[in-house]
Prostate-associated microseminoprotein (Daphoenositta chrysoptera), 130 residues
Amino acid sequence: SSTPTMARQAQKMGCAWGRLCLLLSLLLQLPGSQAKCYFQAKAPCEYEGKQFSLGESWLSTNCLLCTCLHPIGVGCCETTQHPIDFPDWCEAHYDSQTCQISVVQKANPSLPCVKSVEHEWGSAGTPEPL
């Protein structure tokens, strides 16, 4: 009677590997493909005392979107989009509460980085901000 159980487990494993490949390919195609992804082999599918099963996801406190790939491990991807092309009089400001990055003026971080008369914005082929 143990043979059907073994066959079912083997079938589940095959399915898990297929899901793993699909999940990893989806993780790597998140909007803003500069997002970095990490894979921890054999990492437990547990976060802040909660257990997760295959395919379930959670958002960690450091803004990583993690997916349980049991029994293989855990895959996590950054959810924030990192701005890469902005004027040198501006800087990227990271808000860990909202997991958002905004581009603000270095001289006054409470102001957004916008085009003004005294500052030229953009470079060839770079769209101007709205």
The two ends are 67 Å apart (CA to CA).
